[in-house]
TrEMBL record:
Keywords: DNA damage, DNA repair, DNA replication, Hydrolase, Magnesium, Metal-binding, Mutator protein, RNA-binding. It comes from the Eukaryota. Residues 172-300 form the Nudix hydrolase domain. It comes from Coccomyxa viridis. SMART domains: LA. GO terms for biological process: DNA repair; DNA replication. This is 8-oxo-dGTP diphosphatase. One of its GO terms (molecular function) is 8-oxo-dGDP phosphatase activity. Residues 58-80 are annotated as: Disordered. Gene3D superfamilies: Nucleoside Triphosphate Pyrophosphohydrolase, Winged helix-like DNA-binding domain superfamily/Winged helix DNA-binding domain. Signal peptide: none annotated.
């Protein structure tokens, strides 16, 4: 029942958008149901509690002017950022809440970084992508296309943040979470990367890419279940240090957590070799270059952990 309701809402949303956005882009008059946020400037919006009303209205002259300004003027400016944001808010105003949150977050992130016209053109591309999708694929595609279109990019299974460096070169930043899992013998678990992965044969701290909507702790706890067959309470993941290094066309930001408590038996669930290593053994392992600077912090944690054991014993 709920599914049928959702799917009806979904198709009417898509149908509505397919019909309306091209009309908006052409500047033609259209009837839309939209949510309207009062207050124009961001200062005004911060001061006042947001009041929203659902209204049925004809796309106003202002909306059309906004659309044509966006089409004709490639210059970035505060006004134009606002134009794009309002247009996007209008465009996604009646979508389902989960997507709306993603869209608003996307808009928020985009405000500081993107050229509005570019964003607007990407939105048109997004419409084309959605147009080609089957019903089942639509929801995912909206998110993926949105994410891909600008700041957030969902790669195979991860999240990348697109940004431009000072020369304007596009640099993607990928967030990867990893764990220094420590046992009571003071050993650290490492996993060997498979031949079909990047850094083949190298030993790494278990972990992986953060999916959209995941917190770092949530992602790591999921990865530890998938890769190592263990259950970890997110509260038992303590931030230890982070790695930051360039890898190919992107930059990896890797928070490394310390974990000394879990349930279940540790095993390599995904065909990877795993090994409990003393610190001396760990230092002999070949690791991805970005991991090497993290080993000292792991060693300090191992010592601290051993001392806390000693103090409990005495
Ligand atoms: N899990 C983990 N990944 C690491 C470490 N050091 C490091 O550079 N990485 C890199 C390798 C991968 O590019 C990325 C982790 O992605 P992943 O675990 O999902 O592996 P993947 O095979 O799908 O990644 P890739 O081949 O597509 O690059 O972070 C580490 O200690 N642990």
């Amino acid at each position: 029942m709920l599914k049928a309701k959702l799917s009806r809402a979904h198709s009417s949303y898509l149908c509505h958008k397919r019909l309306c956005l091209p009309a908006l882009l052409r500047g033609g008059p259209i009837h839309v149901a939209c949510e309207h946020t009062e207050g124009n400037s961001s200062a005004e919006q911060e001061e006042r509690p947001k009041r929203k009303a659902v209204i049925i209205k004809k796309a106003s002259k202002a909306t059309q002017t906004r659309a044509s300004r966006l089409r004709s003027n490639p210059q970035d400016s505060d006004n134009r950022v606002r134009d794009v944001r309002e247009t996007l808010e209008w465009y996604f105003s009646d979508t389902w809440p989960r997507d709306k949150a993603a869209v608003l977050r996307f808009i928020h992130i985009s405000r500081g970084h993107s050229a509005p016209l570019d964003l607007f053109l990407k939105l048109r591309r997004l419409r084309r992508i959605i147009g080609k999708a089957s019903k089942e694929e639509e929801h995912d595609l909206v998110l993926k296309a949105l994410a891909k279109s600008e700041m957030l990019e969902i790669s195979e299974n991860g999240l990348r943040i697109q940004r431009k460096d000072t020369q304007g070169e596009s640099v993607a930043m990928m967030i990867v979470v990893a764990v220094a899992l420590l046992n009571d013998r003071g050993e650290v678990l490492v996993a060997q990367r498979r031949a079909d992965q990047s850094f083949p044969g190298k030993w790494e701290f278990p972990g992986g890419k953060v999916d959209p909507y995941e917190t770092p702790e949530g992602a790591l706890s999921r990865e530890m279940g998938e890769e190592l067959n263990i259950k970890v309470d997110q509260q038992d993941l303590q931030p230890l240090i982070f790695g930051s290094h360039r890898h190919g066309d992107c930059h990896i930001l890797m928070p490394l957590f310390l974990c000394t408590r879990w349930s279940g038996e540790v095993k390599g669930n995904e065909g990877q070799e795993i090994e409990w290593c003393s610190m001396a053994e760990l230092r002999r392992k070949e690791m991805p270059p970005g991991d090497v600077p993290l080993v000292d912090a792991v060693e300090r944690a191992v010592h601290q952990h051993a001392q806390s054991f000693l103090s409990i014993a005495t």
